[in-house]
Amino acid sequence: MRVSVLGAGSWGTTVAALVCKRHETLVWSRDPGVAEEINLRHRNQVYLPGFALPPALTATDDLVVAAATAQVLIMGVPSHAFRGVLERACDHVPPWIPVVSLAKGLEDETALRMTQIVEQVLPGHPAAALTGPNLAKEILAGKAAATVIATGDETVATLLQEILQRGLLRVYTNGDVIGCELGGALKNVVAIAAGMAEGLGVGDNTRAAVITRGLAELAQLGQAMGGQAATFAGLTGLGDLVATCLSPYSRNRHVGEQLGRGRKLDDVLAEMITTAEGVRTTPVAVRLGDRHGLELPICRTIHRVLTGEITARDAYAGLRHSPAGTESGPW
């Protein structure tokens, strides 16, 4: 099987490094220097410093070549670049091949999930999402992990499961594409909140409360949009939420932690070479909450912090005055 991964960031490169052990794999980078380094030195020092990549993995900066040679196309670009890259590649993608999204976000203007964009740009191609508690550096280091391939086509799910499962990475299948993608996108908002708690030093009890109530919001919105309740208690909901909220490798947690320490959002983002999807997802989540008549207090509070309306300290001070109500909810 010939697999092309579009995007040579940390997660795209990691997935390509796993797949190339049994399948011919080509990774596309928009940066010719990154592609050259992968080919000549078997490294990607920009996104995965200190890690050696398999010699079998090859790279290119030619998007047409990467798209045209694929039998499976994996999209490893952030959500804000997803449609643009796919539109540039679409005329060269062979008919009917599966297209897999690695992005955990929602399109800003449309609030669409990534598989919905695939269906718009490449109609007739099976669309899937790979999502779960998957921190790239831990997986590349060979640590055990589990992930989910979400698609409504069982035959495609089985094929992709075989291609992606390697060593200690266990790949499950799930037909609830809506729930899986929304879990992956919305948990990033909660991770910013959890990071803020860490930066403020408010304590583990507070952080646990925010994570738990964040899961409730995630599940409420996800179900309102058509996801299944059980999905949000699984790898793409609770599992991904825990990893992203607690790991020092988490970009969104890092953003929240820096905000909690009093830094400005623009300064934090300017230092990052990778994308914190939660920053872009937060306003989309608020709009979706309005559309479905949901309060989503954590999402709305994080939005106020990100827009500069209040500080992280103000946000957590407000928790002391929020009415508790009943814990049970529609999820």
Automatic annotation (TrEMBL):
SUPFAM superfamilies given in the database record: 6-phosphogluconate dehydrogenase C-terminal domain-like, NAD(P)-binding Rossmann-fold domains
Subcellular location: Cytoplasm
Domain of life, per lineage: Bacteria
Pfam families: NAD_Gly3P_dh_C, NAD_Gly3P_dh_N
Pathway assignment: Membrane lipid metabolism; glycerophospholipid metabolism
Record: residues binding NADPH: S10, W11, R30, Y47, K104, A136, R251, E277
Binding residues for sn-glycerol 3-phosphate: K104, G132, K187, D240, S250, R251, N252
Active site: K187 (proton acceptor)
EC identifiers of the protein: 1.1.1.94
Domain Glycerol-3-phosphate dehydrogenase NAD-dependent N-terminal, first and last residues per copy: 3-156
Gene3D superfamilies associated with the record: N-(1-d-carboxylethyl)-l-norvaline Dehydrogenase, domain 2, NAD(P)-binding Rossmann-like Domain
Domain Glycerol-3-phosphate dehydrogenase NAD-dependent C-terminal: 176-315
Family, as annotated: Belongs to the NAD-dependent glycerol-3-phosphate dehydrogenase family.
HAMAP family, sorted: NAD_Glyc3P_dehydrog
Protein known as: Glycerol-3-phosphate dehydrogenase [NAD(P)+]
Source species taxonomy: Bacteria, Bacillati, Actinomycetota, Actinomycetes, Streptosporangiales
